[in-house]
Amino acid sequence: MKNFKRFLSYALPYKWQGFFAIFFNVFYALFTALSFVTLMPMLGVIFGETEKILIKPEFPGTLKISKDYLENLLNYFVTTNTTNNGIDSTLIIMVSIIIFVFLLKNIFGYLGNVYMAFTKNNVLNDLRKEIFDKIISLPVSYYSEKKKGDVISRATNDINIVNSTYLDLVIVFIREPLNIIFTLIIMIGMSWELSLFIFTFIPVSGIVISLITKKIKEQARSIFDQGGDLLSKIEESITGLKVIKAFNAEKFITQTYNKRSDNIRVVSDKMSLRDAASSPTSEFLGIATIACLLWFGGRMVLVGHSIQPSAFITFMALAYNVLTPAKNISKANNRMKNGNAAAERVIEVLDSKNPLADQKNAVEITGFNKEIVFDNISFKYDQEYVLKNFTLTIPKGKTVALVGQSGSGKSTLANLITRFWDVNEGAILIDGIDIKTINTKSLRAQMGIVAQEALLFNESIKNNIALGDYHADDERIIQAAKIANAHDFIQELPDTYNSPVGDGGGLFSGGQKQRIAIARAVYKNPPIMILDEATSALDTESEKSVQDALENMMRNRTSIVIAHRLSTIQNADTIVVLRKGIIVEQGSHEELISKQGEYYKLVNLQSI
Asked: What pLDDT, in 10s, does the model give residues 2-35?
């Protein structure tokens, strides 16, 4: 119920649409009951049961209108109309009344559905926006622990289930009980003895259905979790399709996928058994109730003569009108359990805490003036420290290169200075301010990043270069592309800067993608540039073009260069050599070569 209330709060901005949806559905329920009542006068005329009343009943007053008065008034109308205009006229009027009532019922049903559809669409739109905003705001570390496909499943499939289930159930739990209440009121007025059968059916049916569907929520949660896992496998397989094909691993990957799919099928079958059992069980109990009504009511008609045939037929129709919404409510109970399972998964994302969220009084910085200081920092992703007691000062305008074997902590430093992660011990200072106390948006505004793998979005080249700028400057885009040595090949494209890059930049070579990524960093024009092995994945020819672009970009900027190919960082002001998260050497290229230490060995290894 807590989840139900939470998601209903999303409908509050659209309360008037929701109000009209409920308002029209109330009238739908009322006219559903009345539509069966209108059959009784018609049947009374056909069976010749109508009492002949020649004197119009006296109006007793608005507050004293009774069932007897209404029956007498109807009988008076039937008697006089039949006498004056014939039986055909009376039948036509009765049929017209029935058609009119059913028309009103369906008009109210249509209007209720339309307003509810508007409400659902608005709520779903808001939910999509909120969960995507949350997904984007969560730290990078969140997605190293979660499967992307599962998060995508929660943001798409699960919120659709929550939205359609909960808001539909609002109508079901308002319209169907009212339908039952209105119908029971009429039935009690017709025969309280027969109504006892219905009062017995509803609680017994509810208890039985509840026992049958007891484990549906647990099973639904398992299906949703495994469905997210399955989507993760699809996403992973598409991303790594080249590797799968290169290693002839199609059969292995397919078998892994099929096994997970089979697990979902097994749980789905179990849930389907319970879900499928609820409807026939409810229907069987309903038929048993109807059978009892037929026996008991038949005796009242044929033996006791305490109820007229037309009234009994109408009562049976009303009884059916109770059984149908009762069955809908039992189905709604199953849907509620599905909705709760999906809601819990969505809430887990919405309520995820961001450990890197800005402090309440976070400092806003507008520039970089002096130095970056790594002050005795230590960091670990899990149990073992990747960096231990690391201290380094990078003055403004200097280029510092970080080198070392894989796993020595080079890329971790780039992740820490950009606050994709936070240090466990020590502090990182920019102009003497701990970056934990700086507003994250203003911190990252001072930095440009070019990673080893150039990630381009499926947009135009222009939009990729001016990423994040709502008012892109075409001249700045061209100038950034020229600095990145990308302008020439872009100009040769049919649509130049408006050309699409494809999914992940798949329409371009590695060197071209990297130069577009460099142009993006240049366009941002930050004072601090971070290059994380920006040329390591390129061939020699592409590397030369990209390296020239990088050198153009680093002019007059503070640069942190994480290098795999040592030939690209010989001009750095300071080269820092790392081993297992500890600085073992630092100095210029010439100084380190002359020491013939760790750096000297690395250079010689790459020269072989």
From this structure: 767 777 777 788 888 888 888 888 888 888 877 7
Q: Can you tell me the distance from the alpha carbon of 147 to that of 453, in angstroms, rounded to the nearest whole number? A: 21
Long-range contacts formed by 202-205: CB under 8 A, 24+ apart: 202/322, 202/326, 204/285, 205/281, 205/282, 205/285, 205/286, 205/326, 205/330
Give me the pLDDT at residue 63, please.
Answer: 62
3-state secondary structure 533-573: CCCCCCCHHHHHHHHHHHHHHHCCCEEEEECCCHHHCCCCC
- Residue 109 tokens, joined: 């049903």
pTM: 0.71
How far, in Å, CA of 379 to CA of 337, rounded?
A: 43
Which residue do the tokens 């670990």 mark? 380
Buried/exposed code over 504-527 (b: 16+ C-beta within 10 A; e: otherwise): ebebbebbbbbbbbbbbbbbbebb
Give long-range contacts, CB 8 A cutoff, 24+ apart: 506-511: 508/456, 509/542, 510/454, 510/537, 510/538, 510/539, 510/542, 511/538, 511/539, 511/541, 511/542, 511/543, 511/545, 511/546
Helices 309-350 and 216-239, axial angle in degrees (round to 10): 50
Q: Is 337 helix (H, G, I), strand (E, B) or coil?
A: helix
Looking at domain 2-350, does it have CATH number 1.10.8.80?
no
**What are residue 578's DSSP bridge partners?**
404, 583
The overall average pLDDT reported for the chain is 76
Whole-number pLDDT of residue 277 = 66
Give which of 334, 10, 347 is closest to 158, Cα–Cα.
347
Give percent of the chain above pLDDT 90. 0
User: Cα dist. 390→378, 429, 560, 568 in Å?
Assistant: 6, 13, 15, 24
Distance CA 158, CA 399 (A): 48
Contacts of 327 (CB under 8 A, 6+ apart): 279, 282, 283, 286
Mean pLDDT, residues 243-252 taken together: 66
Whether the per-residue pLDDT at 374 is higher than 80: the answer is yes
Terminal CA-CA length for the chain: 69
Best CA proximity match to 257, nearest among 229, 222, 279? 229
Q: Are strands 399-404 and 558-562 parallel, antiparallel or unpaired?
A: parallel
The three-state (H, E, C) secondary structure of 382-412, written as one string: CCCEEEEEEEEEEECCCEEEEEECCCCCHHH
Q: How many CB atoms lie within 10 A of CB 208?
A: 17
Ordered by start, the domain boundaries in the chain are 2-350, 371-607
Tokens of 155: 């943001």
Neighbours of 280 (CB within 10 A): 11
- Which CATH code for domain 371-607? 3.40.50.300
- Classify residue 295 as exposed, middle or buried by CB count within 10 Å of its CB (0-12, 13-18, 19+): exposed
87-109 CB burial, b ≥16 within 10 A, e <16 = eeebeebbeeebeebeebbeebb
Mean pLDDT of 209-236: 65
Task: Quote helix, strand, coil % in the chain, to nearest 5.
Answer: 65, 10, 25
Chain-centroid distance, C-alpha 389: 42
Structural contact between residues 553 and 483, judged by C-beta atoms closer than 8 angstroms = yes
- Please answer whether residues 9 and 166 qualify as being in contact, where contact means their C-beta atoms are separated by less than 8 angstroms: no
